[in-house]
Amino acid sequence: MPKLPSLRFPLLAGVLAALLLALPAGAGASQSQTTYFEAGSSLLETRDQNKVFSQMQTLGVKALRVELSWASVVPSAASATKPAGVDMTNPGSYNWSLYASALARAQSLGWPVLLTLTSPVPRWATSNKKAPYTTRPDQRDFQEFMTAVGRQFGSQVAIWSIWNEPNHPAFLMPQWNSNGTPASPRIYRGLFQSGYAGLQAAGLTHPKVLFGETAPTGFDKVNRRREGSRAFLHDVAPLAFLREALCLNARYRRAGSCGKLQMSGVAHHAYTKAVNPHWVSAKRDDVTIGSLSRLSGALDKAARAGAIPGHLPIYLTEFGVQSFPNRELGVSVSKQAEYDAIAEHIAWSNPRVAAFSQYLLKDDPLGGRPGSSVAGGSVGFQTGLEYVSGKAKPLFASWPLPLTVSRGHGHYSLWGLVRPTTGSTKVTILVRRHGSRSYRVLKTVTTNSRGYWALSSSTAGELWRVRWKSPQGRSYEGAPVRAY
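Above: the chain sequence. Below: its structure as tokens.
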């Protein structure tokens, strides 16, 4: 959302502050934003599943994102030849055991599930039959697969999403044509249409399907003469990807005979660098958490061109702040807790955003440098609430009680959420003054029915934190945060 210009007149500033304080905590922001939690591979490992679900319940998780890779469930995934005589639209032809128990458990808890269908794909479904099995997946085969998925999990999935980061070479190839223009957007468009048709064939007449799942940064074009074959391993910038997939030119005008795509929203992964989440990339087709207006603006232009339905919501289906020991993209674990809350506040403040997310519960093992995944290597994400050892980071305490503190003219604006609550509740805000070693109660406030609260205070401090006790008697205390 655009920032208000500075007000030079004290009386006008005072009137505005009074009006803001009179508004409920959710005024002007998303009133029904869902936060999805993606625990990663630990959720799918049955030996850890009970523990992971118990942790998520304690943290206040109420919705789940799961990525289901095509190759992980299909028969003869490593064969160059498609199995003969097998009905690939029949869910009985697949092995769903890796996912079935997690989705059933989520359903029993009343958690909506966002299921992302993605690569790697069966070898026999690729155009070149070569690893890493992401090259030009066959659209007809994908439609059959989506029909089987819809028949298997149709009653357990609230929202479907097609392909994880299709603008990234680790998930879909080729990204570029030989002349340096994007290739992956048109490949993805075909997969999206086939996937949608597959769900309809499964009996889901009007499936709720998200388009995109795009990575946050990339290029509009590449130059092979300058970089050689490495040029083809760059991501396509998300807005360039969007335009090309919707058959629009750089001015968002129709550049082909493509029809309107039906979708329920656009999914995006608004990761940022190791900086304050308000940071904005100089590349205009990048979309990080600090530049969401670029995406909403692009969607409005695409809708005016007749390429998509109007007023589509944005789903931030994958997000996290990297922390040390990741030295490439990480920040300190204390900043991770602060930045994660700031990012969630940015998303909540944008009425176009229908969903935010957390990825992961536990850190991945450290992998290679950024970009190594395109060569089959492992990058590893350190966005978890826990270290890879299982030891809690400050984010583990802060995620159930996100808190942001912003400096104003003579006051501080505080915002937060009591995530585990199921209704309005009271929460205590603590402050530690400069030079003090202890915290004192700043105020006890009442949240709205969704657990959100806001407060303006003239009390200066060095650190703030939040304390809450659940109706069941469990005590929560967030990690200390600074003002930004």
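Residues 30-399 form a domain with the TIM Barrel fold (CATH 3.20.20.80).
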